[in-house]
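Supplementary Text 2. Reproducibility record for the structural model of the 230-residue chain.

All settings were left at their defaults, and a single model was retained for analysis rather than an ensemble. We include the record here because the model underlies the residue-level annotations in Supplementary Table 4.
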Amino acid sequence: MKKRILIVDDDIMTLKILKKYLEDSYDVVTENAGYRFVEKMGSYEADLILLDIEMPVVNGLQAFDELRNNPALADTPVIFLSGVSNPTLVRELMNKGAAGYLVKTIPRSELIARIEKAFASGMKREKTQEVLILDNDVARLKDMRNNLMDNNYKVKVVRTTVEAVDHIRSHHPSLFIIGHDSTGVSPQEVYESLSRVIRDERVIPLVMEESFFTSELIDRVHAALENTNS
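Retained model, structure tokens:
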């Protein structure tokens, strides 16, 4: 499975060039406005972000601060892009946790090398294990998501088994909390229908019984992960 790279730049030509450079090696998505990146931040599911500094409305530095303030996304590595070299700014950004700083005229080979170095260095820190939640109760989904994020988990929520399978296969979450899907299928039936995918992708299943509420959530999640790792 290719790693996903998000390129955020208001210059369309830069987006086209960088996408062409990278699309053979990575799954590449693009965004041409800093404010839209901030609005849609959680939807890109990027493994690494190339972020332009100079953009109207919301510039790259502001967008970076917003990203770092989002618990689910704070560990995503960000490499800044600029039209000029600025050693002072480089030091400032690296001190704030940036994964790198590149001038846009960088050759393709060096760009890929710098991206691979960021991945190899583990800039997406040993975080934040990801939990996938399937449930058709919107209020309960919201409560569980907020509770898990407050305890430093990355969370993805879905409402159908199709969405769940797609996410499991593409992102390999650590744990899959199974509730009713949007067609009313029971948690146990969902588990049985997805058992092969769960097993093949080595995802830990946690079937949510009727009595399973958010007050128990963190203890259940911790126990499931610890039992598997022990």
